[in-house]
């Protein structure tokens, strides 16, 4: 299947326009980056971000579940 057709179908299944989908995906990406940085800092200085990365991952999971992005 053509990548453009597949992308269009994906956005339709998500009930989002291309740009809305881009904003949502970039938001998820930014939050994952944030969690990753917190975990990296925590690995060096365990007193920092003791639960920060875990909380962010749980928040993302709940968001994705609410938006029916995952089962």
Overall 3D form: elongated
Q: How many beta-strand elements?
A: 0
Helix residue percentage: over 70%
The biggest sheet amounts to: none
Q: Secondary-structure element order, as H and E? A: HHH
Structural class: mainly alpha
Q: Which stretches are low in confidence, meaning pLDDT under 50 for 5 or more residues running?
A: none
Strand content: under 5%
Nearest-integer average pLDDT = 93
Q: What's the alpha carbon Rg, rounded to whole Å? A: 16 Å
What is the tally of helical segments?
A: 3
Q: How far do the termini sit from each other?
A: 25 Å
Brief descriptors of the model:
71 residues; 3 helices
Question: What does this protein look like?
Answer:
This protein is mainly alpha-helical and 71 residues long. It contains three helices and no strands. The protein starts with a helix and ends in a 5-residue tail after the last helix. Helices cover 75% and strands 0% of the residues. The model has no long low-confidence stretch (mean pLDDT 93).
